[in-house]
Amino acid sequence: GAVVSQHPSWVICKSGTSVKIECRSLDFQATTMFWYRQFPKQSLMLMATSNEGSKATYEQGVEKDKFLINHASLTLSTLTVTSAHPEDSSFYICSAISGSQFFGPGTRLTVL
Amino acid sequence: QKEVEQDPGPLSVPEGAIVSLNCTYSNSAFQYFMWYRQYSRKGPELLMYTYSSGNKEDGRFTAQVDKSSKYISLFIRDSQPSDSATYLCAMRDSGGSNYKLTFGKGTLLTVNP
User: Fold this and answer.
1) Are B46 and A105 in contact (CB < 8 Å)?
2) Does residue B2 surpass a pLDDT of 90?
């Protein structure tokens, strides 16, 4: 299957700072990528759809000014959590389309 | 009623057992059905992908879709300790370029040696 990578795999930051997470499609081009958030023992919650060269589409209830998404190339999408707070601590996972939907390994964000 | 219902378990079985995992759904527009396996603190890994009703087999795994009952299943034969993970069902409709998935909550499976 297609390979999707994420960086970093784990990040700890102080409250009020911003954190950027990268999602890359390694062996294919992806015009569409998705960003999910997963809390412990919960399923994946779609946050936004990232489209190359255009603005992301956010799900209801997701603050677009807080979760900035940039899909600047066909292999890279970034999610920036701005002014992070402890309640933003979660597991963030991206996915990309190559026939089906393939997921990255996830990024664990801990906000102190 | 949620769009996709999945018993969260946990489900604990001995090694070698046949495991049956299930999801029900309410949206008749769903056409594509997937099963993902997720190990702790890892991203989901695509296991099975089926379109419409029917069966699909891949090694020890069999996926079944019954659209008339809005019911999908994943069977694991000769289960192994390495199968211990959370299994997520996911589905989507066939609308154009819409690849948005709707997930079940996931079933936590433990296979005991």
Assistant:
1) no
2) no
d(CA B100, CA A60): 14
* Total residues found in chain B within this entry: 113
Q: Do B110 and B84 form a contact (C-beta atoms < 8 A)?
A: yes
**Tokens, residue A104:** 């990255």
**What is the structure's pLDDT at B1?**
62
Cross-chain Cβ contact A101/B99 below 8 Å: yes
For the segment A65-84, what is each residue's pLDDT rounded down to a tens digit? 999 999 989 999 999 999 99
A-to-B residue pairs, Cβ atoms closer than 8 angstroms = 47
Task: Give the Cβ contact number of residue A111 at 10 Å.
Answer: 20
Distance CA A81, CA A67 (A): 5
Give the pLDDT score at B9.
86
Q: Is A104 in Cβ contact with B46 (below 8 Å)? A: no
